[in-house]
Design a protein that fits this description.
Helices cover about 40% and strands about 15% of the residues. It has helices at about 40-50, 75-90, 105-115, 140-145, 150-155, 165-170, 180-185, 195-200, 205-215, 230, 245-255, 260-265, 270-275, 305-310, 310-315, 330-335, 335-345, and strands at about 5-10, 15-20, 25-30, 55-60, 95-100, 120-125, 290-295, 320-325. The chain has an eight-stranded mixed β-sheet with strand order 1-2-4-3-5-6-7-8, with helices on both faces. This is AB hydrolase-1 domain-containing protein.
């Protein structure tokens, strides 16, 4: 096992990507989510390296010490998967294991969809694969259903489309909540701060990260007229799974990079819908384990629990194993040992691939 985590910058897909590495052996790529950086995998890096794996944990585009292009158009899944393919090529790795969490799980799902020949096996956490819904763009549809308090809606930079005639006249399942203060959030300039960044700035990086990591809300939908960051609890003390030093480290990376790059993942969602039409109905054919916490805020939202347990999920990911364990959304940090053991038990099945 490599004695410590090492760091380097790697040129990939037109950006400089920061990568943390440890260990020798078959390569395992760890893809973090929001709002996280490579460090969210700190426990898995150590455990996987100890068990004979070469662990690679990048800061994804827009996060940490990796470059953050300005335009949301440069954060599509094609860009993010392209970053990963370029990283694997730079490392000289033809075929690897992949583990993803949250938005990183979305990247990992689509990596397997686009380039399955590069993946030995996949472990994804918290966010299941969902097929493209052909009838409507996701941000528009979700905002219609759940209102402007939905975190995805508030993470957008420009809400003009909410007032377009096509949006207002569309036949969606539920009415949109009224956006009362249009002038406050209207923003034509993509270089200016978006709604989320403005609300985050009232708290500072440390408190924003703390609120997201420690929330025990059942969903990420703010009450009418309230910002999502205001609706998250501000825990007075830290749980045993994260120390003050660790939380400060993660916050320091967002103090350096800001949140815009990370938020641009959500701002590219409707563009992804347009680009992914050729993969309509395609399945994930890579051997997969999916791990989710029984208290994950996403499990009981959007019909996720029924989708995971009722057979629909497996119809799109046929070689699927689902594990539900005790825990919340940031499961790889909160239940580090259990998650590491689940990852290792699955990867070891494919040690000869």
């Amino acid at each position: 096992m490599g004695s410590e985590v090492t760091h380097r910058m790697i040129q990939t897909n037109g950006i400089q990507m920061h990568v943390a590495e440890q260990g020798t052996g078959p390569t395992v790529l760890l893809i973090h989510g929001f709002p996280e950086v490579w460090f969210s995998w700190r426990n898995q890096i150590t455990q996987l390296a100890k068990h004979g794996y070469h662990v690679v944990a990048p800061d994804m585009r827009g996060n940490g010490d990796t470059d953050s292009p300005a335009s949301p158009e440069l954060y599509t899944l094609l860009h993010l998967v392209g970053d990963v393919i370029g990283l694997l090529d730079a490392l000289g790795q033809e075929k690897v294991f992949v583990v993803g969490h949250d938005t990183g799980a979305e990247v990992a799902w689509h990596l397997c969809l686009f380039r399955p020949e590069r993946i030995k096996a996949l472990v994804n956490l918290s966010v299941p694969f969902r097929p493209r819904f052909p009838a409507a763009k996701p941000v528009e549809m979700l905002t219609r259903m759940l209102g402007e308090g939905l975190y995805i809606s508030q993470f957008q930079v420009n809400i003009d489309f909410f007032f377009s005639s096509s949006f207002l006249q569309a036949d969606y399942p539920a009415p949109i909540s009224c956006i009362n203060d249009y002038g406050r959030y209207h923003n034509h300039n993509l270089q200016e701060l978006g709604r989320a960044e403005k609300s985050f700035a009232r708290y500072g990086d440390y408190t924003v990260i703390k609120k997201f990591l420690l929330t025990q809300k059942p969903d990420l939908v703010a009450p009418p007229g309230e910002e999502i960051i205001d609706s998250l609890e501000n825990q007075l003390s830290l749980p045993s799974w994260i120390s003050e030093v660790e939380l400060q480290y993660i916050a320091s990376k967002f103090q350096k990079s800001g949140f815009t790059g990370a938020l641009n993942f959500y701002r590219a969602m409707d563009r992804n819908w347009e680009l992914l039409a050729p993969w309509q109905g395609a399945r994930i054919t890579v051997p997969t384990k999916f791990i989710v916490g029984d208290k994950d805020l996403g499990l009981r939202s959007f019909g996720t629990e029924e989708y995971i347990t009722g057979g629909d999920f497996k119809s799109f990911v046929p070689y699927l194993e689902v594990i539900i364990i005790d825990g919340h959304h940031f499961i790889q940090q909160e239940k580090a040992r259990a998650v590491s053991e689940e990852i290792l038990s699955f990867l070891d099945k494919f040690s000869n691939v």
